[in-house]
């Protein structure tokens, strides 16, 4: 399917392509956002940032406000359940240099929804609208909302939430085609994303089950959405942004990265992570990324086991460099 994508404009922010990195906890830190942007993600989104963490000057939360020069435009996502604290958090995000502030109304995790945050707001639309309105009034940058289709199949509230978001001044919404009840299981229901597109005039960004150029093209064609957001399909796979962007330009299907390319990028990512977070944290956080980068490669299970046992930066690097040497020689 050959789809020529239109430019995606979110308020005052015009994107080079309608291709967005989804906000993912434990994935979308500054090092990976820079990498994703380099491969063609026209907008990168941060891990979700707690409004209360910002309000009480939590050190870890403060660190999450850091933005690298090479990642703009960047959307910083905040979560909470109170209009006043969310407005204050949004102002902090704008002051930190974010180009867009995104409101999380889709996180399905129990500890989040039990506080009335994330997906729980899809069951309290008046509160959700009040939060959006407060955030819009608190900042001069565009405000977006990330949501799911609803709490469960019986509560398909996304179209109504999107209408309320538009009325409250949101510049765009992103819709993950799964319910909160599904978490990440089953298949994303793109027909429900299409229903949201029909309900509002602001851009709708489709999210869920996008893994390559053709699936991104189908998302645009089947839903009429204005852009695509890639989450799990980008874990250990920043090349997906290059592939999707090119496919949406002219229908070209690029070849997948070679094993050598994967090992080189894994090393570069690890070095950036260590430089940003230090050896102890970088080494441990890279284990998840490494498992994604190496998935499907020959001997990947044994390799992951060795990487997980590596106790120093030098040991980790030596293991990957040995794999890279073998891959180049093949």
UniProtKB/TrEMBL annotation:
Keywords: Flavoprotein, FMN, NADP, Oxidoreductase, RNA-binding, tRNA processing, tRNA-binding. Its EC number is 1.3.1.-. This is tRNA-dihydrouridine synthase. It comes from the Bacteria. Its cofactor is FMN. Residues 21-321 form the DUS-like FMN-binding domain. NCBIfam families: nifR3_yhdG (TIGR00737). The gene is dusB. It is an enzyme of class 1 (oxidoreductase). It catalyses: a 5,6-dihydrouridine in tRNA + NADP(+) = a uridine in tRNA + NADPH + H(+); a 5,6-dihydrouridine in tRNA + NAD(+) = a uridine in tRNA + NADH + H(+). Pfam families: Dus (PF01207). Belongs to the dus family. Catalyzes the synthesis of 5,6-dihydrouridine (D), a modified base found in the D-loop of most tRNAs, via the reduction of the C5-C6 double bond in target uridines.
